Each structure stands twice: as C-alpha cells, then as structure tokens.
Amino acid sequence: MGRATTGEDLQDNKDTAFTWEVKANNAAYHQQFREKGFLCWRRRKYQTNGIHTAKYSIFSFLPLNLYEQFHRVSNLYFLLIVILQSIPEISTLPWITLFIPLLCLLLIRATRDLVDDIGRHRSDRIINNRPCQMLIGKSFKWRKWKDLCVGDVVCLTRDSIVPADLLLLASTEPSSLCYVETADIDGETSLKFRQALAVTHYELISAKTMAAFNGTVICEDPNSRMHQFVGSLEWKSKTYALDIGNLLLRGSKIRNTDACYGLVIYAGFDTKIMKNCGDIHLKRTKIDLFMNKLVVLIFLSTVVVSLLLSLGFWLQGREMKDKHHYVSISHGKGLFVESILIFWAFFILLSVMVPMAMFIISEFIYLGNSAFINWDLQMYYEPHDVPAKARSTSLNDYLGQVQYVFSDKTGTLTQNVMSFKKCCIGGRVYGPDNEDGTCPKENPYQWNEFADGKLSFFNEELLGIVRNKRDKVVQEFWRLLAICHTVMVQEKDNQLLYQAASPDEEALVTAARNFGYVFLSRTQNSITLVELGEERVYEVLALMDFNSDRKRMSVLVRTPEGSICLYTKGADTVIFERLYKRGVMEANTEKILSAFTEQTLRTLCLAYKEVEEHTYQQWQPRHEAASVQLQDRARALQQVYSDMEQGLQLLGVTAIEDKLQDGVPDTISSLKKGNMKVWVLTGDKQETAVNIGFACQLLTDNMLILEARDVNIILDSYGEQNKMVQTPKRSLRFQLQNEVAMVISGEFLDHLLVSLRKEPRAVIQSEVEDKAWQEMSAIRRFSMMWWSLGTSLSTRGSKGKRKQESPEARRERAFVELASRCQAVICCRVTPKQKALIVALVKKYQKAVTLAIGDGANDVNMIKTADIGVGLAGQEGMQAVQNSDYALGQFCFLQRLLLVHGRWSYLRICKFLRYFFYKTVASLVGQIWFAFYSGFSAQPLYEGWFLALFNLLYSTVPVLYIGLFEQDVSDAQSLKMPELYMAGQKNELFNYWVFSKAIAQGLFTSLVTFFLSMWIIRDTAGPNSLGDYQSFAVVVALSSLLSITIEVMLVVKYWTLLFLGTVLFSLGSYFILTYATQSLWAYRLVPKTFPFLYVLHNVLSKAPFLLVVLLNIAVNTLPILALRIFRHVLKKPRFREEVEAAPSEVSEEPLPQLRRESRIRRSSYAFSHREGYGNLITQGTSLRRPRGDNSDTNVPSGFLPDEVEEALPSTPREPRKISFLVSRRPLLRSRAPSQDSQVPSTLSSASTLDRAAPGPSGNQPALPGRLLAGRGRLSQDSSSSFAEAEAPALVRPAQPSGQSSGHRGPAHSQEPAPHQVATGTQTQESLSEQPMETESVQREPSPMEWLPVSSEGQLSPPLREQPPLFPEGQPSPYTGQAANRRPDPKDKGAVPFTLSNKPGPT
Q1: pLDDT, tens digit (0-9, with 9 covering 90-100), for 206-228
Q2: Annotated binding site for ATP
Q3: Looking at the annotation, which residues are catalytic?
Q4: What residues are designated binding site for Mg(2+)?
Q5: DSSP three-state, residue 853
Q6: Which residues fall in a compositionally biased region of kind Polar residues (predicted)?
C-alpha cells in the first residue's frame, strides 16, 4: 500500500526523448531493433498491434497461479501441516485427510481464476481479429488488426474504428480533414476533427503514391499523455512539424469521412490508450489481509503451546525417572528426541486451530453472494437488457467497506443527452406546457417541413407568437440561435443532419429549426436560413469564436436588407457586463437565471445589437490588422472582439438540461450519508463539471469551493510550517467549520503528482495564474480561508516517516488530508493516467478502501487501480465492463450494490469467521486440557472420525447459512438507513477485538465443557460412571457440539425454516454417522479404525450422562446470554450518539465565516463547445464543394479499394441531383435574386497567415444536396446569371484561385508564407488538442519548440528556411486537370489519378 506506482508509471520515468523513428512502408527496418527485456532476453522495440490483456497463458497458468495462491499464508500453513502429517513418527492422522481438502481449495480458486482469464482471452481474440485494410504492395488488402506493424499504411472508411495510433496522411474531406468520435475513449459523442499535413494532402493522391511514400517520422517515445504529441515528418529533405492534431488515436471511430489514410506510429501496447489501461492487479480485501495476520498469530500461538506441552512431557519424563526409578521406562530414542517428536505431534494435533474447512466454505460463501448480485432483479436495467454481474467473486465483503467513490461524469452520472428545457425571452419564461416536458401526441410542428420531430419542448403560446411574427425580440431570439453557432449541415435520407462540435449547440440549433428558424447551409462568408418559410442569406463579416477565456461567441452579419447586426451568446457573467442598460427586464432575467440555476439547468444568455456602418468601417481595419499579427495574435483579436461586443441588448436566456441518469442525486445523497466520499474525475471543463456537481447535489450553494489557487496557498503554508520543529500541538489539523468542496484541474495535478508519477518536468506545462487572482491580495484571501477552514492539516504516519519524505511527498500527503476533509472533490480536465494516480494517491496516504466507477475506455486504468472497479455497460463500449470487478447498467444501482449487497456480504463473512473461530476453539482446545491428564503424550481426546467430520458436516451447514442468508435488517431498511454502512468502514464487525472475544468465549466454553465434566466424574465408579476414556470423550464432544449449535441459534437474527433445517441436518448427521462409526459391524471390519463401540448409545441411554451434557450447555449459554441482554439494554444506537456528539467537535470559540467572493447568484453557465471550429468555417477548410466541383476532393472515388468504393453511398464526383426540396418549394425557385440579396462578401475573421493554402473560391455554398435551382441569393456568385442557377446539372465552373466575386476590402495575396507549408502548419493553430471527455484545453506551444536547435539557439536550417511546396509563380501540378475523368475502379494505383487535390478555400 505504501507504493502506488505501477509498472507503466515507470515507463514515463525516463525523460521523453525523440528516439522513436518510424519509416513508412519499411517493416524490415523496424524489426531489426531490440531492447533489453527480462534478464538476457531482448524484446522487439516496435511491437505489433496484437494485444494480450489476459494474465495467464497455457504454460504460465499452473506456476503463476500456484505462486499467487501460496501468497496466502494459510495455504503455506496447510502445506506445512501436510508435509508433517506424512512423517509416521509424528503423524496423528493420515496425511491424505488434509491433502485432499487442500487440493480442493486450490482447485476451486484456480478454476475461478481460469474462468475470469478465459473471458479476457476471448475479448483479446475478438479485438485482435478485427479487419482493416493495409497497404500491401500497391493496393489495399484486408488484414487483421494483429497483423499491423509500425510503419504500415492503413485505409479506414466511415464508421471504422482506428486500430492503432495513426498519423493522418490524407482523407476524402476538404483539406484532408477527418472527423472522429471518441466515445469509446472518453465517453464523448460530439465530433472532434483532425487534419493531415498540407504536403501529404497534396502529394498522396493514389495507392501508388502511398506505396512510394518513404517519409520518416521522428517523435517522442510511447507515453500515456492522451492529448499531447510532439514530432516531425522528414520527407524529401524537408521537415514538417507534427502535433496531436495530426494523430488518430486507437479506439476512435471515423465519422462523416468517406475514407482516410494513416501511417501507424504506435501499435499494440505502445498506443496511448493502452498505455493508459494499466496492468492487472491482484486485489485482496481487508479481511483477506487480516486473515493472513491471524494465521501467523495462530501459528505462533500453536508453536508456543506445543513447546510448552513438549516441555511438560520432558519434565514429567524426568520426574518419572527420578521418583520412580524402580519402574522400567524405555525411551528408545532418548527423552530429548522423544520431546521433539512430541512437539511436532502436538503441533499437528493443534493445527486444526486454523481449519481448512473455513477457507473452503468461504469460497462457496463468496460464490453464493456473487450469485445473489447477479440474480437481483432490482439491479436489472431493462431498456438495455443489462443485469448486474459480479465479475469477481472474491471482493464481495469489500463492497461493505468502501470509503471513497471515484466516478467518471460523462456517461456515468449523465446520459450525455442535451435537451432544450426552457427559455426566457424579454424577461418572460416559456416552459413546457406538459408537466413531464413532452410534446403532445400529435406533432405540433407539422406545419414546418424542416422540423425533425425530435424536440420534446412545446409551448403553444410561444409557438403562436413565433408564427404570427408579433414580437421582434422573439424573432431575434430564434434568429440568433440559427445564426450564432459553428454547426455543420449535411443531407441524409432527404433530411437535414446537423453535426455540432458540442451537444449544447446541436440542441439550440435544433430548437430553432423546429420553431421555424432553420439553419440551411453555410459558406465561408455566408449563412443561409429559412425563416418561417422565407429564405434569407446573411453575409458573415466576422465570426468571433468561443474559448474558455471569452466564454462567449459572436457573429457579425449583414442582413439581406443591408443592415449590420452582432449576435452574441455566452455566460451571464460576461454578457450582463456588456449590456448598454440594466432595466426591469434585465433584473427579471437575473431572477429567472437564479431559478434556472436552482433547477440545475445549463444557461446561455443571448444578446444582440445593430452596428452602424461607419462603426463597422472603423472596426474592420483593426480586426484585419489583429488577424495578421504575428505576435500575441490571440490577445489582440480578443481585445478587438471585446471592443465590438459592447452595448448589447439582452434578448433572453436558454436553459438546457444535461440529463442525469435516473436516481443519481438520491444515490449520491445516500452514499454521503453512509460516510462515503464521492469524487468526480472528468476530462470535461470546469464549468460543465461544476454544473453537474450541483445537478446531482454533490455541491450545494452554501459550500465554500476551493480552487487550485486556494489549495496552493494552503499547501504552501503547510510547507512553510513543516520546516519548523514539529510538535503534537503544531501538527496541522483541519477542523472544517462549514461545508467545503474542492475543484481542481489536471494541470494542477500534473504539478502535484510529480513524485508519484515521475513525469518529466519538461512536459508538464507551467500553470498560468489567473489575472484576477494576481490582483487580489494573497494574504487577505489566505487569512479569510484560514479562519473559515479552522486551524491546520494533520498528517498521518509516524514522525520518522515524515522526516524521510521528500517535499513533493509531504505536499501530496497534505493535499490528500485536505481533500479528505472536503465534502466533495471534482477534478476537471484529467487524463486517464491522472485518474488512476488520484486513486493511487488516496490509497497510499489514507489507507482507505476505494471504488472507481466508469463507462469508457478512459476509465479502465482508474477501475484497475481502485480496490473495487465497477463498469457501466453504456453506449461507450464494453472496455470498462471487461476490466471491472462488477458490472452495472446504471449508476443508481451502485446504491443497492453497496448499501445492501456490500453490507450484507461484509456482515455475513464477519459473522461466519467469528463463529468459525469460536466453534473451533470451543471444541478443539479441549485437546490441550486433556494433555495434562494424558501425560503430555499427544493422545487425541476425541474419536478420530469426530475430528474428521466435525468441520465437514457436524457444525458446517449452519455456518454456511450464516455466510449466505444472514440479515440484520431488510434491504429496504438498509437503503433507508445508510448510516448502518459505517460499521464496515470502521472494521467494527471483525477486528482484533472481535477475534479476541471469539477466542475468549471459545476458551470459556472449552474450559466449562472439559473441567465440569472432569470434576463430575472424578472419584466415581460403577456402571453409570463416566470414568472411562471413551465415555468421557463422547460426553465432551456432544456437550461442545450442542453448545456451539445453540450459540449459532443465538447469533442468527432470524430463524427461518431453512435455518432450522440446517440445524437439524447437522445434529442428525452427527447422530447417524456416529452410530454408524460405533456400530458392531464397523468394529468387526476394522477394529483399529473404529475403536469406539456403542459409546454414544451408552451415553444417551443413561440419565447421569444426559444431565452432565445439559449442565454443560446451561453453564456455557446462560452467562453469555445474560451478558448480551445486559449490554443490549445499556447500548444506544451508534449513529445517534455520533449525531448528538457532532456539535461538541466544534470549537467553543466561534470563528468568523469566510465571505464568499463570488456574486450572490451562482452562474449556471456550462457550454461544452470547442475552440477551433470557427477557424475551420472562416477558412473554408471544413466546407464541402458541390459535387460537380472536385477542387477539394483529396482522394477520389477510384482511389479507394473496390470493397471500400462499393460500400460508399456515392462518389464525390457524381453530378448533383436536384433536391427533393426543389419540387416542394416551387415559389422559392421562381424568386429572382434582388439587389438586396446580391450581398458582396468580405474578408472573414480568419484571413490570417495561418489560413489554408491557395484553393478555389469559398463562395460556393456548401449545400448538401440542397442547392436549389434559382437560389441566386444563396449562391453568392454575383457573376452567375439566373439562367445558370436554373441549370439542371447544378454544376458551376470553379473560379480561379484567389478570386472572389463581390470581394470587399483590401486584397490579400493568396500565396502562403513559405514557412507555413514547409512546416505543415497549414491550419494547425485551429487544431487545438482534444482532451479527455469534452473541451479542448489551451494549445500547447508550437511543436517547433520541441525540435532540435542549433548552437545559436535558433531553429535548425530545415525548419527556419524552407521553400514552399511549389515555387512562386509555378502552378501546382494538380491544377487544371480534367475534372470529369473517372478512374477505372480496377485500377489499384498503377496510374496516378489526375484529379485535383487542392486544399479548402481561403
């Protein structure tokens, strides 16, 4: 427990070096490299793509499983006893009687491990045999995933899963974009984009060119950092920088991309997702570890007792020799040797103090309780047909001792479904008409031909206002939602299909669509809407994208009437401070925002303003200058945007519900009442995670929320005080006077976990302090927090240990202590590796039982690291379930799993162990007392068959009933009283004290049974005497058996027919089998084996014998029963005492409370949009050209393999068919373009140096199958005539590069700067890294910073001065080629295709 690092952590210990060299299409090169493995074995440096997560193989199963099993001290103990039993001189029983039970125990556990591992082998086989297309020779052929190697080129089609970490080379999308879904990695269903380098986008246009590609990728060694990648591509004597935006990660799914091509960089276990999966750990429960200690304790006690008894034999032998010298005593081997043999004989005789039957029965108990979990219908999730499943059968009691619950957010707490719930327009709230928030049975949006029928929100009054166009504010509200976004649109099955960067945006645009404001299409500088049946085209003058600092997004457009409007949406904290007035409507809106906040809805404020023409003309040059600025471009643009976004008029507020899974708030509330700490570990951004924290009642409004800066100040203060002499009074201890929560980020954890993770500091980015924090006095904030939080941190562990700790370890310890005092902890933007390290941190310093629950592959490492791993079978795949110990269908079932099954399992196993130790001592310690009367000769007291069958039949079945069916309260009461769960957390039901009481009660029972019987029979004679050895042995055995049977009847809470049946079965088996072993027939058969002849019959037939038995039972039972009744009367319910005593823990001197520095109203803003999509739109790189225009087709249809081409619905080069909407909207076709509609285009906000390489004009509207004939306003091509718009083929000639019809503003050269194409950063500034689960974080420094530098500190010549891809003035070899030539589908790359491979428009 002291060391939390794993084997994979050590892989990141090394400084990240750029020694990973990948040569394309050169498998022989990679196979020659070897690196040091175990001992002298050298393994391949570049692994294949096959994975093996199973623990055992055919050859390693037997030795490895035996090695693991004999890690249990009990198994080693039993093996020692078997060896001793095989020595005839000291054996008391045949060795086979102990060897067979030991073999059965090992077989049971080995079978269980084998079944679990077979499941892993089956899962590995399914994954390794998935098909993919690999470039072999000059064509792509189907192969299995396991056949891939580093350097192979792979072809992936739509909906394919990425088999390895690939460098994206090209795709069929414009500018070689590739859209991926990472639901199987981080649980997010929103799309993320990756983009190929410009050079590979231009050059790799056929299978032949792919086969001839011989570039070399030099990058960092395989590591676990999911959202970081640094490397370079060397090709044709040039070097091109690479970052995470060029990489497709294993486990991602290709979306909205017909085909893409990638180079395998990392394969198999070297991939980033596998680096984050962690190793399989051997999980042992607290009781299991405690039993190891007890076995050692009992072993030592047995050795001591055997030594004392053998010493007694030696002394008695000396005394006999000295006092009775006249008696001939023969010790053939000498008295000392005989004493040694007597020692081993006693040791074997007392070895039953650790009964093997207890371990065998416990396996059946674990198996039975696991079956109860599998059979529980209340944990069956019917919608997905997912029952609860106990995948591990040895951790059930651990479920009753959980202290920390680590949960993922997306897909675990939430459904990852956004729904438009309410809105506020002009200070008035419009909620759903139905209480359940559903639409009427008859679709109210049938009047709208574009309505998708999926909107559950319906308000008849609002719909009437919209359709009657009575309120301008309402019109502008919906118009803003249809304009201000970065959603892409496509047509599929004659329906508009929106592809959004976040589910928030999709929900808003879909709501506007159903209310009649339909987002129809967009181009680089225009956006087309259908407003209540009227088509309107807005010219986009500037798109001011969202980012985490701005917390807002704006679009500056020119309306068809010629006016200029700014539409803005964002957080209330930034919108309200930019309003031109704060009137009654704004005040009402703030109150409504507070109400939405209490309902835990995600809110966005909407505002707009009309911009004067002269104001825009003054602002536009500043915007243009900022967009081409080389230094601090982002800050300059942000300032320009902020200047425009002033004097806004508030329109209203949208309220979106991020749907929680059913029962999440109640489950978390019950877990907290059960004294469990709930930590949420998510890759989402802070606002979204905090909003969900309030929604699931993990956070409350009266909580003081500590952020990273607050925690740093507290930890710094702790470090300063630690430098002083530590005394008990100075030991830092937090006594939190009010509820405190902690919200920290992955960046903070990177600094904190350095000593645990040993990541290279060069990779850990320095945290940028918040400006507001710098402006505030740190001393003032610290003093306020200090007063609110109490005094200081107490660290656990000995002083000597703390003195040896490094400063990082002391800081980690202080952080864990502080976090453990918080009522809730939320960690945002954390990677899968960081999730596991947080769990390891708590295990290391708190020694607590941890449970991790998640549903995605990014949670696998956390699930493996925690003591208990729970996987949810959701939409994100089965990786979490396959690596978990327990599988559930919903998070709410965790409440029943822990509070019912976990508590019951812990209660049952504790009662079982306590009673088993009691009955063993009560019945078998009589062997020790008998030694004093048998001359310490190690003669057994009981009949041999009684010893053999005692733990097998006579006393076992009632104990098995306790382990399977015992309940102190019902399941309903367990859920109503979560406080009962705390007994397991405190180890109250089985610890050294409980064990000692069981041993003491067993000793008392054995003393009473043996000596009371002995005193009664002393000096008796005659036919009714108990003086003979056999009668005495049977009386003691029967008294012990009946006493422990009555004890089990008193211990069980409820007597059922099944329980009474087990008691009758045990007693009946004793009488029947004893009569059989003491029969005349058995005696005649083998006299030495069955020496007790009719002894039990004689005892039961004589009244004195029965009276002795009854007296023994009464003396054993009545005092214990009276003591329990007395204690029960005096004892109060434990949890009531704690509640009553809680106020006394507060300091008598009242401490001043911390005044919250946040506003009175908490903002419920949470928007999961990603920065970067705005640049793709304004540059035009993400917009498809009409199908007749092939300028952006990177890999034509004929380039795809036959199988892929047949699978695709259509080729990008087919003539566009007239949309079905043409016939449905004849009025729009007949409308001629007006002068107002001929809006000239202008420079977009992304006319910067980092825009895409030259291409055709971006003024072609990107209408997926909806380019309506006669839509002159839509085309934005002022040079196109109305007759051209009526052309049936709907194919327009491509405009020359660099020309744009209706171009406004100063002309800019379309030639890219030389360094842009050479370094492959065509649009890389828009490719922010994609972190886990939702938002992108701030982009890491330029990849060029990681490349080798010259001695002068400048970049090496290949990076500083590189010629453009094509010399200035020389046209691209791909331009001007025939656009209507269709390649032969059978052509596998023998002839290069001449289709254009230009990038997207600029």
Answers
A1: 888 999 999 999 999 888 888 78
A2: 408-410, 505, 546, 569, 602, 682-684, 829, 835, 858-859
A3: 408
A4: 408, 410, 855, 859
A5: strand
A6: 1235-1248, 1318-1335
